Amino acid sequence: MHEPPARDAAPPASEEDAVRRRSPQAALHVQQAIASLVPKLRSLPQPVIAAVNGPAAGGGFALALASDIRIAAASARFNAAFVKIGLSGCDIGVSWLLPRLIGAGLSHELLLTGRFVDAAEALRIGLVSRVTEDGAVVGAALETAALICANSPMGVWMTKEVAWSRLEVGSLQAGIDLENRTQVMTSCTRDQTEQITSFLERRPPEYTDS
Questions:
Q1: Strand (E) positions, 147-207?
Q2: C-alpha dist (Å) from residue 63 to 4, 6, 9, 68
Q3: pLDDT by residue (tens digit) across 51-95?
Q4: Which of the residues 16, 26, 46, 156 could staple to 5 if both were Cys, CB 3.0 to 4.6 A apart?
């Protein structure tokens, strides 16, 4: 079995080591390490909000797509850049994520051409949920984060997990079955009781993630 390449900047110890580092196997290890960022973002219990300033190209585009929410500054631009440098436009999960956000037809066009999508078009096609003035996008992301944090940690976690899983489930009934189990599980938490109690008492909830 081919061993992963050493992750340091030291020069090759030998010509054989140099050849090994340039091998397809070594390149695949590196590619897999980079691509693993996308499922890691998906598996986080906390929602990830991408606040995009300027260009999000190639890997930056992929990380934006892998986020739960995307907010763009007016200067933001998005493209699948890899096809413009002789590589496949399908990289780091983009070929799975993009068509689920904007549909297969438009996704194929963007992947094949590598053209840029500006903030206005991104909003129109559903690539982002909001566009702000330049300089205001981080504040807008924090506002959205505050709205999310007003809900219970378990409720947010299960909402994110089911929403992503639902993209991978093949039928309506399978999705409903998943939702049913999640609702029963979250209804048994102390935070669910606290959220109802605080609403009735007209006070902010005090969550304990329990």
A1: none
A2: 24, 25, 25, 10
A3: 999 999 999 999 999 999 999 999 999 999 999 999 999 999 999
A4: 26
DSSP assignments along 18-82, one per residue: HHHHTSHHHHHHHHHHHHTHHHHHHH-SS--EEEE-SEEETHHHHHHHHSSEEEEETT-EEE-GG
**Alpha carbons 115 and 89: distance in angstroms, whole number:** 11
How does DSSP classify residue 87?
Answer: S
CA dihedral 124, 128, 132, 135 (to 10 degrees): -140
- Distance from C-alpha of 77 to C-alpha of 61, rounded to nearest angstrom: 9
What's this model's pTM, rounded to 2 decimal places?
0.85
Which DSSP symbol is given to 10? P
| More confident of the two residues 14 and 210 | 210
Question: In angstroms, what CA-CA distances link 182 with 65, 92, 157, 177?
Answer: 25, 29, 10, 9
Q: Does residue 164 carry a pLDDT above 90? A: yes
Please give the Cα distance from 163 to 104 (Å, whole number): 19
